[in-house]
Amino acid sequence: MQVQLAPTEMALTQRSHGSQLRRPTLEDVARRSGVSKSTVSRVVNGEPRVRPEVVERVREVVSELGYVPNQGARQLVTHRTGAVAVVAAHPADRLFLDPFFDCLLRGIRRELARHGAQAVLLFLDEPDDYARVADYLGGGHVDGALLFSLRPGDRLPEMADRLGLPTVFGGRPLLRDGDTVHGHAYVDGDNRGGARQAVQHLVALGRQRIATVAGPYDQENSAADRLAGYHDVLLDAPADLVEKADYTRQGGADAMAVLLDRRPDLDAVFVASDLMASGALQTLRERGRRVPEDVAVVGFDDIVSIAESTDPPLTTVHQDVTEMGRLMAHLLMRDDGARDATPGGSSVVVPTRLVRRGSA
Questions:
Q1: How many angstroms separate the first and last alpha carbons of the chain?
Q2: Averaged pLDDT, 11-36
Q3: What pLDDT digit, counting tens, does each position of 88-140 carry?
Q4: What torsion do the CA atoms of 251, 256, 261, 264 make, to the nearest 10 degrees?
Q5: Residue 48 — very low, low, confident or very high, per pLDDT cuts 50/70/90?
Q6: 19: Cβ–Cβ under 8 A, 6 or more apart, which residues?
Q7: Which residues have CB under 8 Å from 95's CB, separation 6+?
Q8: 208 contacts: CB under 8 Å, gap ≥ 6
Q9: How far apart are CA 266 and CA 279, in angstroms?
């Protein structure tokens, strides 16, 4: 019985037998397509200035022959690696337990996949990691970098500038006075506006003594902006209604305990992240405080896996975290490749809105 092979199957079979054991080449595609090798190269590399009918014909031949471009040669031509560094100044074990980072990374990966690129995760756990990460970024292994949670005066942005490495920040960068890093793109949420919405909602409920569990506002602009939004509404809020934590569940639980010890009469709290808010709810439950009857609670982020699983479900400020990650990757990869188009200072601020559930 004779079996008729599809063109691609035939090419694969021919490459696996005897004297015809070889991979189809660029020359083979050019010869079959009736165009030059340079035209085939432009089509394969997705370059413009090729007529649509030629692009279609070359792609048909590529599929028929089973041609696979040589990745090393392609990199030499395009000056791209197809990889993007995602650099986070937090321990890896902590970030992988944070649903916010998981949502952000999901958006990044989806957008990079659209561009045929992949993410390389780099973590700054220890001081020595800076030299390791700097060597990696400077070694031509990636086309750009997405930087998260960098502290004021961090050396990485300036280093990326020196290397000419396109960079996008996750969140508005918090730089020291005198820093020379300018013009980097960033993607952030409307942290200050969202915090205002949260506190205004608590005021509208008639709450009189509204506390806040703030993030580490000496380290991240998002935390400073959310605290500023709290003070926009409560201009004269006393200092004993403000407690700082570290964006972890335990940090939120501990900060809530401190606030209750200091101000047992508080009747509402705005917590600067859902993860911290889940810890705050735990402390309130352990202290016998009913939510929302005794203390109303509002979080920030609207991480659904947290907000819908707390008891009661968490009223919170929504920002599209997955979309923020996608936008970061989009800014980096736009205009046909990161190396050819440094974002040049563009920034995106994602809007926020209050989502009402049972806690306030």
A1: 74
A2: 67
A3: 877 666 777 788 888 999 999 999 988 888 899 888 777 777 778 877 887 77
A4: 170
A5: low
A6: none
A7: 88, 101, 123
A8: 267
A9: 17
CB-CB contact of 280 with 269 (8 Å): yes
Separation of alpha carbons 332 and 313, rounded Å: 36
Residues in the chain: 360
Q: What is the pairing mode between strands 210-214 and 268-271? A: parallel
- Residue pair 199/234 in contact (Cβ under 8 Å)? The answer is yes
Whole-angstrom distance, CA of residue 342 vs CA of residue 345: 9
**What does the block give as tokens for 146?**
């997405």
Q: Which CA distances in Å does 346 have to 22, 165, 183, 327, 343?
A: 47, 16, 8, 11, 6
According to the 3-state scheme, what is the secondary structure of the chain?
Answer: CCCCCCHHHHHHHHHCCHHHCCCCCHHHHHHHHCCCHHHHHHHHCCCCCCCHHHHHHHHHHHHHHCCCCCHHHHHHHHCCCCEEEEEECCCHHHHHCCHHHHHHHHHHHHHHHHCCCEEEEEECCCCCHHHHHHHHHHCCCCCCEEEECCCCCCCHHHHHHHHCCCEEEECCCCCCCCCCCCCCEEEEECHHHHHHHHHHHHHHCCCCCEEEEECCCCCCHHHHHHHHHHHHHCCCCCHHHEEECCCCHHHHHHHHHHHHHHCCCCCEEEECCHHHHHHHHHHHHHCCCCCCCCCEEEEEECCHHHHCCCCCCCEEEECCHHHHHHHHHHHHHCCCCHHHCCCCCCEEEECCEEECCCCC
CB contact set of 164 (below 8 Å; sequence gap of 6+): 342
* pTM more than 0.90: no
- Which amino acid is present at 122? L
236 has which bridge partners? none
Q: How many CB atoms lie within 10 A of CB 70?
A: 12
φ, ψ for residue 346 (rounded to 5)? -65, 150
Question: Two tokens at 31?
Answer: 């010869």
